[in-house]
Amino acid sequence: MSDKKDPSVWHGFKAFLMRGNVVDLAVAVVVGAAFTNIVNAVVKGVISPVIGAIGTKNLDHYSSCLGTCKGAEGIQILWGSVLGATLQFVITAAVVYFLMVLPMAKFLARQEARRKAREGSREIIEVTELEVLKEIRDELVAQRDPERSRR
Fold this sequence. Notes:
Layout: H1 9-17, H2 20-54, E1 64-66, E2 75-77, H3 79-144, H4 146-150
Helix pairs in contact: 2-3
């Protein structure tokens, strides 16, 4: 047997868990679950009653039938369930966009503008310094050789 110990499975697993992307993914899942609860509450407390004013509060009751739907005959299409799931998706997307994506995009745009402004001012300073150095060089050359400067 060798004196060197191979890294154990436990150390490898621990290193895997401590990677940044695994932690970010875990946070995203938790935040996603919290948003799901919020969206479900909005659908149940706001959207369903509004739709209920027109028809029934439970969208699952909206359906159509192909053929005759007596007993087990015919094909029943539950378009209310699809409508409910679609509304839930749209609401989830709106919440994520307006509460997370849009503010983050504005924040990043402001940071980028500040960074470009800082780089622009550095560039102006560098150009100015370069021009001053060229003028100094030209003056030194003119002092050494006065005939050259007259040309």
